Amino acid sequence: MIHSLFLVNSSGDIFLEKHWKSVVSRSVCDYFFEAQERATEPENVPPVIPTPHHYLISVLRHRIYFVAVIQSEVPPLFVIEFLHRVVDTFQDYFGVCTEAAIKDNVVVVYELLEEMLDNGFPLATESNILKELIKPPTILRTMVNTITGSTNVGEQLPTGQLSVVPWRRTGVKYTNNEAYFDVVEEIDVIIDKSGSTITAEIQGVIDACVKLTGMPDLTLSFMNPRLLDDVSFHPCVRFKRWEAERILSFIPPDGNFRLLSYHVSSQNGYPVGYRSLVAIPVYVKHNITFREGSSQGRFDLTLGPKQTMGKGVEAVLVSSQLPRGVLNANLSASQGTYTFDPVTKMLTWDVGKINPQKLPSLKGSMSLQAGASKPDENPSINIQFKIQQMAISGLKVNRLDMYGEKYKPFKGIKYMTKAGKFQVRT
Amino acid sequence: MSASSAFSDEKGGSSSVGEPEYGHDPASGGIFSSDYKRHDDLKEMLDSNKDSLKLEAMKRIVAMIARGKNTSDLFPAVVKNVACKNIEVKKLVYVYLVRYAEEQQDLALLSISTFQRGLKDPNQLIRASALRVLSSIRVTIIVPIMMLAIKEAASDMSPYVRKTAAHAIPKLYSLDPEQKDQLIEVIEKLLADKTTLVAGSVVMAFEEVCPERIDLIHKNYRKLCNLLVDVEEWGQVVIINMLTRYARTQFLNPNLNECLLEEGGESTFYGSDADQDEDEDEDKKDEALSKRKPYVMDPDHRLLLRNTKPLLQSRNAAVVMAVAQLYFHLAPKAEVGVIAKALVRLLRSHSEVQYVVLQNVATMTIKRRGMFEPYLKSFYIRSTDPTQIKVLKLEVLTNLASETNISTILREFQTYIKSMDKDFVAATIQAIGRCATHIGEVRDTCLNGLVQLLSNRDELVVAESVVVIKKLLQMQPEKHSDIIKHMAKLTDNIQVPMARASILWLIGEYCEHVPKIAPDVLRKMAKTFTNEEDIVKLQIINLAAKLYLTNSKQTKLLTQYVLNLAKYDQNYDIRDRARFIRQLIVPTDKCGALSKYAKKLILALKPAPILESPFKDRDHFQLGSLSHLLNTKAGGYQELPDWPQDAPDPSVRNVEVPEWTKCSSREKRKEKKVEKPFYSDSEGESGPTESADSESDSASSSASGSEQSGSGSEESEESEERSDSDEEEEEEEEEYMSLDVLMGTISPSGSLKSYELLHRITGEGLWVEYCFSRQPFLPDPHMVAVQIQFTNSAATEAKSLRLEEAKLQSGMRVKEFPEIEVLPAGESATVVMGVDFCDSTQAANLQLCTHSRKFFVSIQPPVGELMTPSFMTENEFKKEQGQLMGMNEITEKMQLPERCQNEHAIVQRVIAAANLSRVPCGSDKEFAGRTVTSGSLVLVTVATKESGPSQLTINCEKMVIGTMLVKDILLALTQ
Fold this sequence. Notes:
Chain A is α+β, with helices and mostly antiparallel strands. In chain A, 17% of the residues lie in helices and 41% in strands. Chain A contains eight helices and 23 strands. In chain A, strand 18 (337-341) and strand 19 form a beta hairpin. Chain A starts with a strand and ends with a strand. In chain A, 39% of the residues are buried. Chain B is α+β, with helices and mostly antiparallel strands. In chain B, 52% of the residues lie in helices and 10% in strands. Chain B contains 42 helices and 15 strands. The longest helix of chain B is centred in the last third of the chain and has 33 residues, at 711-743. At the A-B interface, strand 2, strand 4, helix 2, helix 3 and helix 4 of A face helix 4, helix 6, helix 9, helix 11 and helix 13 of B.
């Protein structure tokens, strides 16, 4: 399936190569570089590039292209998903997935890649299993290995590999037993010029950090499980139980993992009157105009909270790509700071916290290129924010129970709402 | 950092061996900054007897390989270390070996014996990795050794080693395709493996080596379907794709009838111009419809659809896509809709995933628009999307456009036109054009909108609009001469060649509508002819020719002039065209017969272009495949076969020895290794999987201590033999049994279905299932015998297994089994207990206790198990039946499927559903029994007729039991 892998950095250098079958010359990447040149933006490089003898499938993460070389038919998503899994594993091992981190740990990277694929077919991708095979590098372990000459490669077959619970190793022990769950919701919105909502969707995830001794069996129930009608689970969740009782029942992996992700949309599948629309927590008043014949434009933007259930809107950041004709922006912010990059024409305004008594605003004028005609297009405004202690969909965890172990774990749950792709058209 | 490591590198080269400085992290970037040319020091380090030095050297070598540096000259020094004790050194040597063995075949042979030894190691990890490396060395000489190793590993005790064997198969095949036949044998053997660990890998091997041998799948089909949920995600993708192909060859098209109907419906809907044809068509369709038998979905087809559906919830996008394509290609139309939601969810993933998913959605929307219509807004475009995603979303939106939503879509398109991304704007204009051609109502609106765009400041936008307007105008030119006039004016400003060419073509084609303007345009064009692009020049010639034919008075000289200019053009196409046109239109004495028809030739009515989606007809490629994405056949692509006209024999999927039909040999069987799949389990988690797991667990735990090396293969051979004899025995017994059935005296038979009492995950390795053995429970005749099987798959032994009554319904009684004191790891034990269910199907809730834990479990009896067979003659039967009339009689009509028309099948199915005995020599098929607790009679009659529906009658004084039994037997007979 996957023949070879090349890692290419943003300046177009191949800094790592790995082959699982016979060696493919790195000149095959020339086709990739060609495509890269044709694409105006880095993310516009087509993920699948056919070449005379091979196919190149690539993903871009952390400004590194992971280019897989394929020789014959294989579902493209299979390769893409695998490459993302590789990146996730690197991130898990080294904290960050940068060129420097990969170069520093090249041997571990090689050992990982060797375990993850056999003859191009995925072998072990579960991070629990990998960590038993190859221990993640830590400063302490590096020191100890240096002195004692011991290795960070496991000798025994990881227990998970054969068990029916491949995601959890046996013999886990903690002195403090704790289980934390974060409900994080991102709200994706398009609001049109007149302020009406065109689409609104919520993408939620429940991320867990479970540090429990032994083989705990957890059940998590919700106050309003009806909200979750479009979900995807970590393999540990018992699907039948969910289908029957709407309860999440699972033996958790050890450490951090994503328990489930869900999707709530405003348009379909909702019982009328239940919650027919996704609540929009902020509103934007804007007035961005360019006049014909004058080299000035007006810019006026005000933000305000709405439907936040009394919670504060924090870490607000507004950005907008102004038209090419704009030379400079001369604005004044009632709160926070703004920057305008005259090269990329990107206007960013770091607002901070919204105070409902004194709404933040950004006003002023834009200067246009002299003699140029009025720009056709109006910029769209992207907003980021965070609201703590609230899940905008209204999802609430009812209770968490543990079976199978005798001790009492410490349990915690946190809610947060963030702006995902929150876009206002002007 | 680089300076210091470079320093120590240097030191390493010069100073004597054994310095501790070598211990620094080799991958710390030093290697990248220092330029290493000589490898002498590395050789010295590899030759030393200190593991730390060797490790150090290997790390540096691997880092060089990673950078693509050639280190092949170190081969002899490295290969010596293949037997090194240090496991990390060994692993790195393997990496090196696999990379360079192909180039240094002779030297690579030195390492083979080490691997051969490794293959016999008691540690399964070492056996597996030895096989992995051995099979990865691409040296043709060792093909026979590899073959032998694979064969041996395929019958290894450890499923992990068997998985590695499956992985090795395609490696050997690519090295030497001549081994195909032998490899197929191994694949066949591994396909019969019941562990989830092996399933994915062996199907992958099957796909690479012998995808055409679909016959190998038959016997394993149901097992694969049932195991699917538990297979690791990558294996799931491969299996689902393979099963899609399999299903296309084995089952009937579930949409066949609908397809015919649909075609008929659609043609009336769009009002095709040939109305009378349509009627004929419909007649034909009706005929075709009536000829077809009513479609009944094969239960195996249903099984596949049912077992793949939960995987739509997978976190792995590839799995979701695989299930989506399976549903798209195999499911009845009404059920395909479920995939839409899952695919829309994937749109939130990484942009590469979006790219692939959108391509597939685009193809699906052409065939099944309705499926994605509710999700229209999820495809709205954000200014932050990458252009390639925007264009694909636009494609989907265009495909989704219909009379009802077109106004929303057009409003959305209007905002897109103002985007800063000009490529995207151009694509939007094309999309508007396509909407306009497909939906007649909005054609004028679209056209007006596009005409407004002609005054846009951006030339690209204008040019694109012109091209699209040209196509739209071709559909009804007579109405729009003002637009043509407007466009004629544009020739002064617009510079994009394609747009200029389009305008000229329009004016030429419809010069009758603009008789005054056309000659003037030609005049202007003649002036600039020499500076135009080639496509524009060609259109100028065309325009000239058309005007010459319609209005030669005004344009004769102009045409001559243009043709003369063209005659000396640099481009031969233009010279050629000029010569051809001149001959055709200018009458000379020499001219041939053609010039008479010049007008007809050049001004012929031209059909309007059809604006089609580039994704049309892409669905002949399997969705989700690389070939579909590229729209060309990729190497190794397996065509998705068409549905067969008539379904192939479904019985090929039956496994010859349905072991669960016997109860007598059940206990025996459990002790042995079962070779046959266990498909009766509806949970998808079959018993043998578990037993294999526990086996290997015990193997690995004992392996560390004792010498078990050679015995692995022997043992499995033995087990094969045993299973062979087992099979024979079973065959005999089956024959015997069928005789019994014919004579109608059989009592305990039919399928013994196992139910799960305690899941192995909940039970922490303890796995309990129960079945109704249908033996009389000797201590108390009013109790139902329940046979319980404990399997301990945990690593530790389970102690004092017993049952305690928890909350029994009133009247229910339980006779517990004697406590099992110790159940060692990997072992299983069977006990029998009795339950008095009080003739009701209420579950008996019990508490299962081990030495450390308690589990709440419940035993739920199917109604058919609440009775014992009772023997009576036909006369007695008739007499009893006579007394149980009226309210006590329930009659149901049914249509028996073809498969169970014969007597044998009916008898078997009834007896499987309920614990009854057949009344011997009865004219109809009659069965009798008594309920266990109260001893009430249960009489069942199945009356079949040559034609018309069959009839099922049940006489029983317990009406509840009667009604439930009717349902169960009906289900058993009609499925």
